[in-house]
Amino acid sequence: MDNNTLKLQHIIATATNIVFFGGAGVSTESGIPDFRSVDGLYNQSYDYPPETILSHTFYMKQPEIFFRFYREKILSITAQPNAAHLKLAEWEQSGKLNAVVTQNIDGLHQAAGSKNVIELHGSAQRNYCERCRAFHSAADLLSLALVPLCKCGGRIKPDVVLYEESLDHDILTSAVNHIARADVLIIGGTSLVVYPAAGLVDYFRGDHLIVVNKSPTPRDAHADLLIPGSIGEIFSGL
Predict the structure, then answer these.
(1) Mean pLDDT of 76-101
(2) Which pLDDT score, from 0 to 100, does residue 38 have?
(3) Residue 185 near residue 179 (C-beta atoms within 8 A)
(4) CATH code given to domain 1-32+81-121+166-238
(5) According to the model, what pLDDT value does residue 198 have?
(6) Per-residue pLDDT for 40 more than 50?
(7) What is the residue-averaged pLDDT of the chain?
(8) Which residues are catalytic?
(9) What SS3 string covers 16-68?
(10) Stated pTM of the model
(11) Which alpha helices (DSSP H) does 62-200 contain, by range?
(12) Sign of dihedral through CA atoms 122, 32, 147, 145?
């Protein structure tokens, strides 16, 4: 175990209120591509850039292309939690960690056993009819036509925040409150370039800011502990 990992282990052992703030890098080790890495969605060929396809305007005007992209590139029902997800769930169960604030929509934190997961951008595991508001699972969505319709005839929309849509106010407030009360904030698997989510880190006033990420982030210079590398590998050694 290297010196940085030992330091992280000590901080975790003495902490009483940890909050984890994570992004796509937490799930890439589960086989879910992120948006900006070499193998991510921004480097894969499609007729339109991902941020265009995943916009509210595009969803409304070209639902066939939206749902084809969404099914192929976004929706995953076979991915399994990795070591990072499992370690965070373990910390929550032991009373160390109070919340996971995630930008991911894959539901893997819950699959690993985490209970208090604040999903800033929604969840691909939830889908709702735009007409009658009936719930539909991710598996339901895959079993329906390309543009999925409810029994009532309404279109089924994934419960995810698209470009041009606002984040839920209550969810943002919950994230702010947890981050503001934390004594340790661990930032992991995120480049911290997506706003307003990345701005939530500004509310942290605790003792230790820790950054675990493969690439540099805007918060590196402010971190008490900076550990470059794979979050799954690092967390599995704790």
Answers:
(1) 95
(2) 46
(3) yes
(4) 3.40.50.1220
(5) 85
(6) yes
(7) 92
(8) 121
(9) CCEEEEECHHHCHHHCCCCCCCCCCHHHCCCCCCHHHHCEHHHHHHCHHHHHH
(10) 0.92
(11) 63-69, 83-93, 108-112, 138-143, 169-181
(12) negative
